[in-house]
Amino acid sequence: MSIPRADDHDTAGVYAQFREGLGMNIDILTFDAASGHKSAAEAVRLQLQTQMPQADIRIVDLGDVLKCQTRLLGWIYQNGISYFNWCMRNERYFLFPASIRAWILFARINTRVAPLECLLQWTARFWSDRTPDVIVSVTPMKHTIVFEAARTINPNVCCITIPVDYSEMTSGYWFQPKVRQHYLLGGEQLHREARAAGVEEARIHRMGGMVIDPRFYENSPFDRRELLSSLGLHPDLPTGVISFGSQGTVNVLRCARRIAAAQIPVNLICLTGRNAQLAAQVGQLATPYPVIAQPFQAAPPVLAHRLADFLIGKPGTMTLNEALVTRTPFIFVKSRGLDLLQRGNEDWVLEKGVGVQADTPDTVDEAVNAVLQDPQIHQNIRAVQHRGVFEAGAVIARLIDGDLAASRLTPAAPLSKAG
Question: Residue 2 falls within a domain, yes or no?
Fold first, then answer.
């Protein structure tokens, strides 16, 4: 169902219904690589559902949309995602930079070689039974063809992109100014890159930080000592969480082993994700201090973060912002295979002084000692607190309001090829 149009006599009534989300279809576009994009999509969904309780809001996987183009494209996409997640679990990123650049090139070529109208019509089959009013993308590269396809169904669909990195890894990864869309940006480097890419200033919208699950902002009181004891941890020791995403990577085990070998007196909560083998290996560790494995759970690990005196992980945007919001010092293991993607995140953490870098899992013990002995890091964390997901919800509501008004006054812009 498309956004309702009002005549001059019922505008107030329509806007009241609109702000409740009555009859609106909102799609949040993500994909299943690693876990950050899906976490961001769920964060946006939860916030919008709170603001627009009557809207039909769903999370859409990019692969399901691409399968409507051709089966071959769907197969290529799905196998590419599976391969990337295998690389994540094993920390072996063969040809990652080259594959990203190839995918960006492919995204551009397939809108120029194939007849654009035909490609858009194939893609638009995804919405054969549900007309989109709003599409919010937290995915890079291929989101623009999805926007254009949706406009063949509803020319006034409101398209919004939220980059979930602190910088663009390569040209065209997030910013494609030839395709009409709004950008919600949570970092100064992104603002500079958007302007340099040629994005109109009116389509750049600032946020104080990145979007993460609103539940990380909850602050219900709990008995720390009692909870640690119930988990089998020592109530008088500092506690660390080791998290390398929902896939569960070998770096979780490597970091736990190193801290145990250094005999640092801390509890460790190892988030092992969907990797059952990793969970078993953590459970079998012989350590001088308590270590537990926590497999993947549908709810975010808010309580584990709030228990933690430090968080060890990859320099992913969601991980570092979850630590930031829960005021947990962040120790990141310097990225190797993903450095092209995560270098901007690393620079941001070090620039703001909210975390410490470990060059490899074999040096993470030094970083733990540094964090536990540095009171300044907590002041730095307090200085950069943000409410990004709530700001995003407010901006999205305002943009939809504006697009509703504009659609009554001006014709839809012509479709453009993805640039």
Answer: no
